[in-house]
Amino acid sequence: MNIPNLLTIIRILMVPVFVYTYLHVPPELSYVPVLLLLFSGLTDVADGFIARRFHMITPLGRFLDPVADKLTIGAAVICLALRHWALWILVGVYVVKEVTLALIGLARLKSWRNSIAAKWYGKASTVLLYALMVMVMLWTDIPEPVILVLMILPLIFIILSFIFYLKEINIHKNQL
């Protein structure tokens, strides 16, 4: 177990903590789930940096890191959608993308060990989703029409990354 993988596991373990905190903290502590989400995002950046910088990339890390991303983002977006109906659109698109890619990827690549490394468009989607989530959590009385407008760019990147990752899966499959 290396440091990047440990950080990823910590990020996975933080998901239920975030969900519980988001759903149960009193309004005067509404900044706590924001801090947890930001800490998770910084941990994601740190584990990637450490893994690349110190040559600690492992097949397990290549598998667990995107799992941690999907669990964190999925849980956060669903929690936010419980309070903001407009975000159910984002939940739907995100879930369709992730489930479809997981099923197609597993079927075509035959093993989680053949997973594809994160690309710039996936990272851009993640950053935009984090920005949207933090904005919605900090602006507690944000109007739904504003959320709809703020979702446009993350939705575009989710859809584009879906298309580009499908192409990557096909390319990678042909190289196996």
Label this structure with key terms.
mainly alpha; globular
Explain what this protein looks like in three dimensions.
- Helices cover 81% and strands 0% of the residues.
- The two termini are 27 Å apart.
- Helix 1 (3-24) runs parallel beside helix 3, helix 2 runs antiparallel to helix 5 and helix 4 (87-109) packs parallel to helix 7 (152-175).
- With 176 residues, it is an all-alpha fold.
Spatial gap, N to C terminus: 27 Å
Helical proportion?
over 70%
The percent range for strand residues is under 5%
Globally, the shape reads globular
The total strand number stands at 0
Order of helices and strands: HHHHHHH
CA-atom Rg in angstroms: 17 Å
Poorly predicted regions: none
Short description:
The chain has about 180 residues and is an all-alpha fold. About 80% of the residues lie in helices and about 0% in strands.
Task: Note the topology.
Elements: H1 3-24, H2 31-53, H3 59-83, H4 87-109, H5 120-138, H6 144-150, H7 152-175
Helix pairs in contact: 1-2, 1-3, 2-3, 2-5, 3-4, 3-5, 4-7, 5-7
